[in-house]
Specification:
Oligomer: single chain
CATH class of the largest domain: Alpha Beta
Helix content: 40-55%
Radius of gyration: 34 Å
Largest sheet: 6 strands, mixed
CATH superfamily of the largest domain: P-loop containing nucleotide triphosphate hydrolases
Number of helices: 14
Strand order of the largest sheet: 6-7-8-3-9-10
Shape: elongated
Distance between the termini: 46 Å
């Protein structure tokens, strides 16, 4: 199988790809010079020192070596400025790439709101800023070699003047000038090499920011074994905050037990904590306090791969790779047979529209599935869940992109899918929740009501208001 993420890759990592190529190119072109140039320089230096001891008139040319330490100063000063400007240039390049990616992903929105001129202006400003930074990098890179050559000219000219006054033999002058040139030329090339390494170092620093970013979710050192999963889920005084303070908590001291095989509807206004509640089960996040248990085991005591192998997730905006429909469906369970994939598509009411394509299941869906409609993409995502056949199923607005006819077909299929499974179903359309045997009503990060639909409808004004408003609508 082959999957490509296209232009919507994770931003820091996507920006780091070009930086990695920069480092790779620098290492390839510089590896040979890093060995040859120091050897050449030391050989020339050794010859001048030997000749100064053995050849008449040669000691004068030791003065020509006195300017070599002077070359170190511009290398250090310019190298420091080059490093700073290179980091700024890479950052500007990343910003331009990100802006371009956003525009390619949001073509419809840009056109719908008449933002073409604004985006052109923003992009032009970004390009001008990037050009300015690149020109500064070029300036500092280009100035090193001429500056070292200029300093070297003074050393050689001074040595020639002194040798003339001392009437040094021409053969000695010629040999020593050649040796001085062989000493200065590696210095000049090493100045250029330092510029390349400095740019590569700036790119490497940006890569390290991504590679060394601490992993927020880690596996335990001694994980517990998860046996056959029944699917019981329990929250014990669970609080969660995306920020650092309790005031930013999305969930507050939530405690609830969802028996295995329960279809549980999570209901409440936007921002009440429903999706966060569901995302804590597969450990997309870890609870700030309290514990989330699956079959009595804290999810933090399990390997992430072991836990998630028993969970199927269908989100509101499911991602499709730029590959065939078959390979996108196969993500549900790698290694499934074609017959199993097609049966999963039938269960999700996707087989009919897939078969209508000239290439059928081998049809390439395009970047992020752009060749399919929203409803078709959602049904493929549901087919993945059918294929995975996991004991725990999370549906986060899974039928939001379907029309009434497709939704009815999906509801019939879901009645078969949820049998024997623990289902967390998030939806704002109450028609999708009619098969739930447990309703949890969320409000401002707390569960304010729980129980069957009829009981919660009678007892909770928030749920009753949401339900009645939608029925009237």
């Amino acid at each position: 199988m082959r999957f490509s993420s296209g232009p919507a890759a994770t931003t820091p990592f996507a920006r780091g790809i070009s930086d990695t190529q920069q480092v790779q190119q620098t290492l390839t072109t510089s590896a040979n010079d890093l060995i040859v140039l120091p050897i050449t320089f030391l050989s020339a230096l050794g010859y001048i020192t030997w000749a100064a001891c053995k050849v008449q008139g040669a000691p004068i040319f030791l003065l020509g070596l006195a300017v070599i330490p002077v070359c170190v100063l511009p290398l250090k000063v310019i190298g420091k400025n080059l490093y700073r400007r290179a980091k700024q240039a890479f950052s500007a390049g990343g910003d331009v790439s990100e802006h371009l990616r956003e525009n390619l992903s949001a073509v419809r929105e840009v056109r719908a709101f008449g933002l073409e001129q604004r985006e052109i202006t923003r992009f032009s400003e970004g390009i001008r800023h990037l050009f300015g930074m690149q020109m500064k990098v070029v300036k500092y890179s280009a100035i090193l070699s001429p500056l070292i050559e200029f300093i070297a000219v003074f050393g050689i000219a001074g040595s020639l003047l002194l040798s003339y006054r001392a009437q040094t033999p021409f053969s000695t002058v010629l040999a020593m000038i050649a040796a001085l040139y062989m000493a200065y030329d590696p210095m000049r090339k090493m100045g250029k090499l330092q510029g390349e390494i400095t740019r590569g170092s700036a790119a490497l620093d940006r890569i390290e920011q991504v590679m060394l970013e601490p992993e927020p979710i880690s596996d335990p050192s001694q994980p517990k074994t998860l046996g056959p999963v029944r699917g019981e889920i329990e929250f014990l005084d669970v609080s969660f905050a995306y920020g650092a303070t309790a005031e930013e908590s999305v969930l507050h001291k939530v405690s609830v037990r969802i028996p295995a095989g329960t279809t549980c509807a999570l209901v409440g206004p936007s921002g009440a904590g429903k999706s966060t509640f569901a995302n804590l089960v597969p450990r997309f996040y870890d609870a700030t306090s309290g514990a989330v248990l699956v079959d009595g085991i804290d999810v933090r005591d399990l390997r992430q791969a072991d836990l998630r192998a028993h969970i199927a997730v269908v989100s509101q905006d499911s991602f499709l790779f730029n590959d065939s429909i078959f390979n996108n469906l196969l993500l549900g369970r790698v290694g499934a047979t074609r017959a199993e994939v097609e049966q999963a598509a039938r269960n999700a009411s996707a087989h009919e529209f897939i078969s209508a394509f000239p290439q059928g299941y081998d049809t390439v869906v395009g970047e992020r599935g752009t060749s399919l409609s929203g409803g078709q993409r959602q049904r493929i995502a549901l087919a993945r869940a059918f294929l995975r056949n996991a004991p725990i199923l999370i549906l986060d607005e899974a039928t939001s992109a379907l029309d009434s006819e497709s939704e009815a077909a999906i509801q019939r299929a879901l009645q078969k899918l949820v049998v024997g499974k623990t289902v967390l179903m998030i939806a704002h359309r109450f028609s999708t929740l009619r098969d739930a045997n447990l309703v949890l009503v969320f409000d401002r990060g707390r569960i304010v009501a729980r129980g069957p639909h009829a009981e919660v409808y009678r007892a909770n004004p928030l749920y009753r208001g949401l339900y009645d408003q939608q029925q009237i609508g």
